[in-house]
Amino acid sequence: MKPLFITSVSDYAGKNLLLTGLGLKMQSDGYRINFFKPLGNRPMRLERILSDEDAAFFHEIFGLKNQLTAATAVLLTDELLERLLAGRWKIDLVEKINQALKKFTEADITLIKGVSRFYRGSILGSSEISLIKEFNWPTIVVDRLTFTGETIDGFMGAKRSLGNLLLGVVFNYVPLTKMSYLKKKVVPFLKKNKVEVLGIIPQSAALESVSVKEIKNALSADLICGKDRLENTVEKFCPGIMNVENALRYFRREMGHHVGYPTVECLAVVTEGDRADIQLAALESNACCLILTGHLYPDDIILSRAEERNVPVLVVHDDTLKIMNKLEKLTKHIGLETLSKVKEANKIVRANVNIKAIYQKLGLR
Predict the structure, then answer these.
(1) CA 186, 4, 59, 341: dihedral to nearest 10 degrees?
(2) pLDDT, the chain, mean
(3) What are phi and psi of 163, to 5 degrees?
(4) Confidence band, pLDDT 50/70/90 cuts, at residue 246
(5) The CA-based dihedral angle spanning residues 179, 147, 6, 196, taken in that order and rounded to the nearest 10 degrees
């Protein structure tokens, strides 16, 4: 059984994206796969089993059976963290991993997901980088391109730390304007420093968008209008925290109503439930969804206008800032809350990652 460890330089870098595409491609090529996440950092309960959200997600999309309890070696729950901080519990993470791996069914490849940032896991006595070395896991590092210099530095740091265990790196969420620069300048530079670039994945509106249903579930929101528009996808979220004149100008600009600005097909506006002026401005600008914060329900005139335009209206408990933070994470994370992205993830990884080279490095045919 060949292991392949996928980690990243930063959070929300594209690990699930890469794992989804690689795993589905491997299965379509006839390989049997397992999924393993040594340190579960997203605890969730599924059918009375306490597991990790990523483990549950990959078990679902890969069709894995009866392995959920072994899919993580340690779940970092709030209770466990409190025990560790109080010195009431010591964990041998290496031994826990060995015990978990023994429970897996026979397979050709085990895909292993890290939690990003090589120091993670130190509280348990074994950092991610020490685990990679302990188990000799061949590793691919992915990062979401934000500041080019930081990403390059992170990749080179991974090479210094992992040596030959680093199979290569993948750039994710690359603007089209950066593609040529990466290929002509950055890839040769990294190659000179013995870092192989295995993929450059471009930005994708489909991967950044989420359905109204997924938003509703992720925010535990009340849907009070637009029940037949749950499958509508939202491309961008705008906070409605300005005065109404600026809000109207801003919404129209974002919807591409002004020359020189790109068009957003579906814009959701997040604003307080008592800001009827902002809500009306959003509806007049053809926003495709309203998310009302503070657990405040809209006036009848707002509800009537939303029903006329068939615009879903969601009511949530948290304030606007907290909701915007949650939505930002939702657009960057492919998991149980965003199953609609699986098909696009599979397509974009196959098109932009050198899977043949990965097979060769793993000794697969």
Answers:
(1) 10
(2) 88
(3) 60, -130
(4) low
(5) 50
CA separation, residue 108 to residues 104, 112, 196, 324, 364 (Å): 11, 13, 24, 41, 9
Beta strands in 203-309 (DSSP E): 210-211, 222-225, 233-234, 236-239, 267-272, 289-293
The token pair that represents 284 in the structure block? 């007049």
Instruction: Report residue 99: phi and psi, to 5°.
Output: -65, -40
365 vs 343, residue with greater confidence: 343
* CA 14 to each of CA 183, 295, 337, 361, 365: distance values in angstroms, whole numbers, following the listed order: 19, 33, 16, 21, 26
- Report residue 113 CA to chain centroid gap: 12
Write down the pTM of the prediction: 0.87
232 touches 266 (CB < 8 A):
yes
Q: What is the DSSP string of 292-311?
A: EETT-PPPHHHHHHHHHHT-
Model confidence pLDDT, tens digit, residues 74-100: 888 788 778 877 777 777 888 989 998
Give the type of residue at 118. Answer: F
- Segment 292-319 shows an average pLDDT of 95
- Residue 196, classified by CB atoms within 10 Å of its CB into exposed (0-12), middle (13-18) or buried (19+), is middle
3-state DSSP assignment of residue 187: helix
Tally of CB atoms within 10 A around 272: 17
244 within 8 A of 285, measured Cβ to Cβ? no
Task: Pick the closest to residue 39 from 93, 79, 82, 86 (CA basis).
Answer: 93
The pLDDT tens digits for 118-130 are: 777 777 778 899 9
Which pair of structure tokens corresponds to residue 197? 């670039």
Please name which of 307, 334, 100 lies closest in space to residue 224, comparing C-alpha atoms: 307
Compute the distance between CA of residue 181 and CA of residue 78 in angstroms, rounded to an integer: 44
Q: How much of the chain exceeds pLDDT 90, in percent?
A: 61
